[in-house]
Each structure stands twice: as C-alpha cells, then as structure tokens.
Amino acid sequence: MQPVILRMEGIEKYFPGVHALDHAQLEVREGEVLALVGENGAGKSTLMKILTGVYTKDEGSIELFGEPIDIQSPHDAQKRGISIVHQELNLMPDLTVAENIYIGRENVRGFFLNQREQNQAAEELLQSLHLNIQPRTVVKYLTVAKQQMVEIAKALSFPNTKILVLDEPTAALTDGEIEELFTFIRRLKANGVSVIYISHRMDELKQITDRITVMRDGQFVKSVNTEEVTIDEVVQLMVGRVIYEEPKMQSNVDPGAEVVLEAEHLNSADVKDVSFQLRKGEILGFAGLMGAGRTETARLICGADKRESGVIRIRGKEVRINCPRDSVRAGIGYLSEDRKRYGLCLGLSVEDNMVLPSLERLSTSLFVNDRKLTEVSKEYAAKVRTKTASVKTAVRNLSGGNQQKVVVSKWLLRNCDILIFDEPTRGIDVGGKNEIYKLMNELADEGKSIIMISSELPELLRMSDRIIVMCEGRITGELDIAEANQEEVMRYATKRR
Amino acid sequence: MKKLSGDKIDMNKLLAPAALIILYIFFSAFGNNFFSADTFKNILEASYYIGFMAFGVTFIIITGGIDLSLGTVMMCSALLGAYTFKQGCPLILSVLLTILVGVFFGLLNGLLIAKLKLPPFIATLGTQMVSQGMGSIITKVQSQTWPTATDLTGGWFKRTFIRANLFGINGFPVGALWLLGAFVIATLILHKTKFGRYTYAMGSNEEATRLSGINVDNWKMGIYILSGLFIGMAGLMYAAAYTTITPGTGNGQEMNGITGVVIGGTSMSGGSGTMVGTLIGVFIMSVLKTGLSSCGLQAPWQTFFTGVVVILAVLMDIQRTKAANRAKK
Amino acid sequence: MKMKKRIALLLALTMVAGMTGCGAASTETTTTDSSGTEEAAEASGETMYIPLLAKGFQHQYWQTVYAGAKDAAEKYGVELYFDGPPSETDIDAQVNMFKQELAKNPVAMGLAALSPESLYEVLDECAEKNIPVVCFDAGVPDDPSGAVVATASTDNEAAASIAAEKFGECEKLVEKMKNATPENPVVIGVIPQDAVSATQIGRGKGFVDKMKEIASQYGTVTVTGHEVWKDEADNASIIIDVEVPATTEAVSVQTVANSLLSTKGLAAVFLCNEGAVTGFLAAVSDGEDLAEGGKYAELVVAGFDAGAAQKNAVRQGWFLGSVSQNPYMIGYDAVEMCVKAAKGETVSDIDTGAVWYDASNMDDPEIAQLVYD
C-alpha cells in the first residue's frame, strides 16, 4: 500500500450561523485517485477550499509528507504542490493556451513578454502530458474537454505538483471526452500525482477511483476501497437514507394513449428532419452525445430558436410557434439544461419566479393581487416539496435541486402539460436527483407528458418509457424501454452518416 | 442562518433613511439657518425635477439598462414647450407638448434598444446628442422663457406646478404634491403591477424571462416610454422652478437622476431596487448640497461630497451583494 | 454588528465633511471686525453678512470682480460670501444658490443674474423680507418685485461700440470696405459667446449697430447669422456675420471660429467676451496665425474683457486692441452699494465704465489696473 502523503484531521470551520465542517478528516495516499463524495452542502467544497488556501481553517491540523503545514493562500498551496481545477473553467477564452497557463507568472524580459520562450515552455509541458494541444491556439476554439485539460495542465505547470483536486471535471463532457480525461488521469497517477476527485456521477467512481471518502453534514463518514463497495452502498453512506426510484422495466404508457405533441420534419441549422410523437403520461427520453441536436430540438419546440421548416401539432391541431410566448400559451414548459442562465431570475424570490409566466392569467386587473400570488406559490411549492424558508426567499439561496423544483412549479402553475426537462439533474446532488425523479414520475402519473433530455444514460434508462436517440441533428433510433440498454443506445448515438 | 440574513436585509433597508435623517440633523446643528422652513422649501424645490427624472430612470436601471439622455431630453422638452408658448400656442398645449416630447424620446430609446437591439449606453448617448441638438435647432439657439408667476397669461403655470397660496399658506410648495403623486404612482407601478414584476424579471435574467413566454421587447419599449413620460414631467417641473431654459444644456443633469437612483440602493446591474430608495436618494443629494452650502461651502465642494456619497453608496451595495452571496454558501 | 460599523463610518465621514466645510468657509469669507472702518462697525453693531452671486468662476474676469469685492468688504467690515454656478448656463444652479443664500437672511445681496426671469419669484421673496438686492455686471431689467435697488454694470452697448469705432479708424479695413462689391463682399465676423445673456446680446447689438453705421459710408451693409441680430439687405458689399457657438464651451467657440475663418472675404472679427476670445485663439494656433507672415496676418481682430491670453494677443499686436470693462470696480461698487442699501441709504445705478486698450497704451498705469490677468 502506498504511503499517506496528506493527512487532514479535526478540521473545523464556522461561517456565520453555520457549522460548515465538524471534525472533518481526509487522507490521501501517493499516486491514488481518491473520490470525495457527499451531497451538496456536505462540506466537500469547504474542505477543498481549506486545502487549497481559499479559506483558513478554524481548527485542526494538516500534514503534508508528515510535516504539519499552515496554508495561507492559494498561492501558498500551489507552492507546496497542491492545485485545484474548479468546476467552472477559469480560462480567459480570448487568450492562447500558453498565455492561460502562465497567466500571472508571465515570462518577461524587462518590460516585454517573452512570448517565444513562454510558448516553448507550454509546448514542453503539454507534450510531457501527452496532450495534443498547440500552445498558440486561442482557448475558445478548443472543445470543453480540451479546455479542461488545459486547466489541468495549468495546475500541473507549478513545479512538483503532488496533489491535484478535480471538482466535477466531467460535468460538461461527453462520454468520449470523459474517456479521454480518464486516460489522462491514469497517466498522472502513474507519474505519482495524487488526485482528489469530486463528482456527483456515481458510475464514474467505479471506473477511475481507488478509494472513496464519504462526507455528510460537514463530517467525515467513511473511507472505503472502491473495489469493495457497490454504488448503492456509497449512495446510502452519502444520504444516510434509502434512495432512488425503481428503474422502469417496461413502458407505463398505453400504446393507444392520446398523442399530445407531434413534431414533423423539424429543420434548422442544427436539427435535420426531426419527427416524433409524445403521448399523454409518457416520459420520452432523448439520448445522444453532446451536440447531437437534442437541446436544439427542444429549443425549436419551445420557440426559443427559429425553425426553418416543420410542423408542430398539439393534440392533433397545428400550432404556430414563433417565439417562447407561443409555446408557453400552447402549454409547453421548457426546463433548460442551464437553469441559472435560461430558467431562473436568481436574484428574485421563489414566488416571483414561480408566478412569472402566469401573471397574465393570475392578474387581470390593474394591480397584482399579492396575497393570491403568495397563496398559489405556497401551494405549488408544497406540491413539489420545494425546501425553502419561505416563498419570499431569493432563488439564489436555494440548492440546485430545489431551484429545479421552482422551475417545475413555474410551469405547473402555468398549466403546462408538456414539460421538457433538459438535463434535469445536472449539478444536483444524489438526494436532490431522486427527488426530481420522483417528481417526474408523479407528474407523468398525473397525465403530464414529459420529454427528458439527458447525457446520463443510466438515468434515461431508469426513467423513460421510450428513448429516442439522436446523432448529428438526426433521429437515428427509437427504443422501447423494455428493449433498451446502454450498448444499444450508444450504437445509435454514434451512427454517423 | 436564514433568520440571520433576514435581519441583515432589514438593516439595509433602514440605512438610507437613517443617513438622510442624520444628514439633516447634522446640518441643522452646523449650518447657517439650515433648520428653517425656507431652507426646507429650497430643498424640496431643488428636488422636484431630479425626483421625476430619477423615478423614470429607476425603471430603466432595474431592467439593467441605462439612460444617458435624461438630462438633455428633459431640457429639450422644456425648451420646446416654452418655444411653442412663445410662438402663441395656448399654455395648456405647450404643457402637454412638453410631456409628449419626453414620451417621444422614450419611444425612440425604446425602439433603438428593445427592437433594434442597440446597447442602452450607445443608444441613449445618441439620443442625448440628438435631443440636445434638436432643442437648439428648433429654438435657433435662443433661450426660451416660461411665464412667470406674475404674468397675466399663464401665471397659473407656476401656481400649478411650483408654489401657490394654498391651504392658507403663502407660497405652499405645490410641487411637493406633484412629486408625492408621481412617487405613489411610480411605486404602485413598480411594486404592484405586472409591468413592475416584469421590470424586475427582465433585469434579473432577460433570457429566462423571454423563455417564460413574456414578450420582453414590448415590455421594454413600455418601460422606456413610461420613463419618457416621467422625464417630460421633469421638464415641466424644471421649467416651473427655473423659468428660463437655455439651449445646449442638460448634459450632466442625467447624472443627478442616476446618482439619486444609485444612492437609493438600486443596483446598476439590474434586478433590484425600490422607488422609495430612489426618493430617499434624491433627497440625500439635495440635503447634502443645500446643507454644504449652508455651511458656506461653494459649489465645487458640493460636487465633491456628492461624489463621495455615491462611492460610499455603491460600496455598501457591493457589501450587500457579498452578504447575499455568502448566505448562499 | 458590521452594520453599526458602517453607520459609524458614515457618521465620521459626515463629520469630516462638516469640519472641512468650516475650514473652507473661513478661507472663502473675508471677515474683518472692529479693525474695519468705524462707521461700518457702528452702524451694524455686528458683522454684516453679504453674499455676492456671480455668473461663474471660470473666467479671470470674475476673479477680478471678487478682488474688488474683497477690498470693499475689508473696508466696510463685511462678511463676504462670493459664489457662482460651475458654468454660465447653469441657471438652475444659480437659482438654487440664490435661494439658499436668501435662507440665511443676509442684510443685502449682490447678484449677477444669468437669467432674470428665473429669479422673479425669489426676488419677490427678497422684497417681502426687505432684503435689498444690488445687481452687478448685469441688471434685472424691469424687476417687478422692486427688490433690486441699483445696478453696478458696464453699459455694454456703449462699450462694444468703441470697438466698432476703432474698426472704422483702421485704414486697412476701411480700404477693404471701400473696394468691396456685392460679388466680392467684405465680411466682418462677430462672435458672442451665447445669444442668451443680456450682456452678450447688448454687446453684439452695440457693435453691430455702430459698425453698420460706419460701414454704410462705404457700401450696402447686411447683417446675417444669428436670428437675434439679423438685419438682412440685398446686394450688400459688406456683410456683418454674427455666429453663436452651440454651447459656451471653448470647443464650441473654436468650431464657430473655424467656420468663420474659412469664410471668403473675412476681414475683421469682433469677439464679445473672454470666452469668445479664448475659443477664437484656439482656432488660430493660440494667435500665431495672426502674427506677421501668419495665415491670417491680414485679419483685424478686436476683443472684449481681458485675461492673460487676450492681453498677450493685444501686446503682440495680433489684436488691434480690446475693450475692457472695469471688473474690479464692479465688484467694489457692488459691495459698497450693498452696505449702503443695508443701512437704508438710497443708491442709484452706476456705469462702471469701459476703455479701449491696445499695444500702445495697455501699460499705462490707469489702464493696467483695469486690465486684469
């Protein structure tokens, strides 16, 4: 067994009103990939911020290679060989790869930048990591996965980086890209770098990690060897309660059920001749790799983008959808993959967000009826079990799962019976995910029709009645849940022309 | 923790009014004859037109936009009103025209920003110059005069908008009633109507609002037109207070309005702010200016200290945002 | 807890503001107690507070007015407050200042009104409170309130006509006017800084009227340009062109000067105040274009008021000369009349006079004291 190189013990951290870390501990061994898992708010990020010098600990000790250390600042952490790659990429999109790697530590000759040497150094670094990236490339022209690797390269460009923290590195990656990243991580491991890997994607842990450390409510729960546990056991450790909706084995929808939404020959720049039908009470999964045209199709249906041709029918009647307003009126609610950007007004209250599309309907007189709005928003918040101090709380103070519920109730309140969930569980922790699954099943049982777009195949297979697979803007396959499995879906998803 | 952040917000709400009261008490103690009915009236009268401008631009700033044309549009409307009056137009029509000019430029700004998608900064920078130029061209660069209180024709103008012998008080500040009325209406619109809700929603996240099925373009147009209406009214209040309107002026007046809004706690990035904050912000500025002058400080000092207050106000706004973000973690 | 800290900070800052305020106030006001003249001390018993509100501060003209006022304040033992709006178009700022000073209940007030109409109501209040107002630099014509007791100012029309007379004596220009034809007219440019203030309108009028009278001996004269002074005639061989800048900023004046300079047949220019001179000089490379061998060496230029740049242009012979009022006396007389009016004495209007100065006489002692820097 490899020696322990980092030991954090008895770490305490208080924020005003919150005991964020309660005797947290962590051990990292040389050259291992250690998963750090826990629900949102479990204290993973806080612990990592203490390790990387963003926060200072209130109590506890940190030992690096057996020596007690006191980490003062991110810079200090980097000097000691501890680097972090954050979930949100922190690259300057308009600068080159080399400029990004050496930002703040530019190679200068007197007053001027020494571009040539800097590029050379970057090239050597990238080559040593077997990365096929040109140092002179402007970062925004790289794929997200490549950008991620530039971030990692940047972290490793500090001399003798020994510990690398990766915070949800796969959140924005496609399956192929994830594989690429994993190969890369394995190579780092072989070079003796220890990786602390934070992820919400349970299936990844089995593939890449050696050990798993579980945290809950700011406390250390358990460290286990990855080989010795099942994912469900890990999840149980994380949430401390029973989890997950039963996977669907066969479709719950009567094949003769009413067709509520029918798309015929939809076309746009990214969508090619897409036709499908959605039945009442159905959860229709959309699978595919990133860029397959799933989100783009959804945006056509909800009028966010203009379609070039094609017909949309609701309950057999053709509807004109040219802008989001038209689709909302037709009863289609879209839950974007990027809630913060397209779904919510973060600074406004839960209530304001929930009633936004329905104001026209709920307030027909000159002034809005505040009491009525509060009443209905309370009712719907309760209906979808939104956890919030009150409906007057700003949405930005809610957890990801509860934010998603606000978006759901926003559309329910608007009487939408067609709901498009685009990556509904992205960035939501395990407990929150299950809440969303449960809610979707309940909605479908009530007779709402749901389109579910997801890049996580396991959740699509667990939830859908039927799966449509897209590739390069086209529908390449349609599978009933009874016959669907990962291999089958992937075969269609990569069925290029 | 939830409770904690709740208390904090309440404290913040009290901060601006507290600052206003403290300033007033401070100057009453140290200023030369500051604590008097005359000075109080002066503070009111210097605030009317700024108040109207600030009410209008509050809506715009909450949507995350900006209007740099406020000052010159106000001057242009007052100028054209006076010009038509001088040309023999009945005063009541000139008064209406003054408001209409404001509405017209609001419409123009709205078209440029909501429909043609120009950035508000650029669009209103353009209308700033257009309105200033237009006023000068039509009046042939001559200053225009509104009727004074003693004029036989149109003496009612000042009695209606600035001061009159009312309720047995000689020189009752009628303008204060107009300001109060405008404040009540603006508050109702902002806080109690769909229009107001959409204003906040657009400022907080325009794309999310559009995807919620709201016709963002039209509502935004509406906001600029409403703001234009307030600015036209500001033109009237300016005319009533200062009588003579000089072409080629108004540059810099927009800052009076915007400063009031910012001191009142409305964030320049949009999505938050209140009308009552704006009202208090406007009065903080006038009390400060009048107060400094009662201490014998000349105009440059007043500008200097207004600047200091703006910086302090925005610093506090940033602190507030930080506190809000911390609450999230 | 943090909030308390913030309030404390705000308070402290306000205190500082107040303190600086007092400090600044004492530097700006000139107080003299018993050491002043005995009559004054006797008459008032306490120091008289008299505010003087000028049209602005930015020109050296007003600084000279202030100097005169300060000397008079010294003499009579007056606590003087001298202020003006940041720019000469800030009517609202001046009205607010006037109201605020009035609220301090001074014994008398001095005023150089930017816009008389804007001040009617406030003057009414002065009359009600029995506070006499002395106008300086510019009057309030037909003051309806009766608060204005007297005016100390230059007769602007008369002063500006001096420049026209000097143009009439300039052989170079007379020659050109004689030779002018409707096809090849001579242009005489006039730049008032604005078409709003009575001062500028009066100076323009004084010059235009006199110039027209003189030039009529040599041919038909037409007055073109700005509405206010326009008086057009057909087939004119001599054109008086009055051009007003869009704003009072030096840049706008420069723009107007440039367009005037490019006018064919331009032979002479009259600039109605220091602001117009400054803008004009900027358009002629600070005056060098007017020097011997320069681009506009032939141009005959006269200015109004003084100031370092204008004085230099006159001294170098680039300008034919300039008219100067007596700003020092304006300030001095204003305070003196305020004091008298406060004591209940009758005061009447004073013409503070104007002189022509050129390279030859500007160093004479009696002229030099009028021509401020």
Indicate the low-confidence ranges of chain B by residue numbers: 1-9
Biggest pleated sheet of chain A: 6 strands, mixed
The helix tally of chain B amounts to 13
Which sequence of SSEs, written as H and E, runs from N to C of chain B? HHHHHEHEEHHHHEHHH
Percent in strands of chain A: 25-35%
Separation of the first and last Cα atoms of chain A: 49 Å
- How many E strands of chain A? 22
* Number of E strands of chain B: 4
Characterise this structure.
The complex is a heterotrimer of chains A (497), B (329) and C (373). Chain A contains 18 helices and 22 strands. Chain A has 497 residues and is an alpha/beta fold. The N and C termini of chain A lie far apart (49 Å). The mean pLDDT of chain A is 85. With 329 residues, chain B is mostly helical. Chain B has a two-stranded antiparallel sheet. With 373 residues, chain C is of the alpha/beta class. Chain C has a 7-stranded mixed beta sheet with strand order 7-8-6-9-10-11-13, sandwiched between helices. A 6-stranded parallel beta sheet of chain C has the order 2-1-3-4-5-12, with helices on both faces. Mean pLDDT of chain C is 81; it is low at 1-6 and 15-44. Chains in contact: A-B, B-C. Chains B and C meet through helix 1, helix 2, helix 10, strand 4 and helix 12 of B and helix 1, helix 4 and helix 5 of C.
Break the fold down into its secondary structure elements and pairings.
The complex is a heterotrimer of chains A (497), B (329) and C (373).
Chain A lengths: L3 E12 L2 E12 L3 E5 L6 H8 L7 E6 L2 E3 L4 H6 L2 E4 L11 H5 L6 E2 L2 E2 L1 H14 L15 H13 L6 E5 L7 H16 L3 E5 L3 H7 L2 E6 L2 E7 L5 H9 L19 E9 L6 E6 L3 E6 L5 H8 L7 E6 L2 E3 L4 H6 L2 E4 L3 H5 L6 H6 L3 H4 L7 H14 L16 H14 L4 E5 L7 H16 L3 E5 L3 H7 L2 E6 L2 E7 L5 H8 L4
Parallel strand pairs in A: 3-10, 3-11, 6-9, 9-10, 15-20, 15-21, 18-19, 19-20
Antiparallel strand pairs in A: 1-2, 1-4, 4-5, 7-8, 11-12, 13-14, 13-16, 16-17, 21-22
Helix pairs in contact in A: 14-15, 15-16
Chain B lengths: L1 H29 L6 H26 L7 H17 L4 H25 L4 H19 L5 E2 L10 H6 L2 E3 L2 E4 L1 H19 L1 H11 L1 H6 L4 H27 L1 E2 L7 H11 L11 H20 L4 H30 L1
Antiparallel strand pairs in B: 1-4, 2-3
Helix pairs in contact in B: 1-12, 1-13, 2-7, 2-8, 2-10, 2-11, 2-12, 3-4, 3-5, 3-10, 4-5, 4-10, 7-8, 8-10, 11-12, 12-13
Chain C lengths: L1 H27 L9 H7 L3 E6 L6 H17 L1 E6 L7 H12 L6 E3 L8 H10 L3 E4 L11 E6 L2 H14 L1 H9 L6 E6 L6 H18 L5 E5 L12 E5 L7 H12 L4 E6 L2 H10 L16 E5 L3 H8 L5 E5 L1 H16 L7 E2 L2 E4 L7 H4 L5
Parallel strand pairs in C: 1-2, 1-3, 3-4, 4-5, 5-12, 6-8, 6-9, 7-8, 9-10, 10-11
Antiparallel strand pairs in C: 11-13
GO cellular component, one term (chain B): plasma membrane
InterPro entries (chain B): ABC_transp_permease
Protein name (chain B): ABC transporter permease
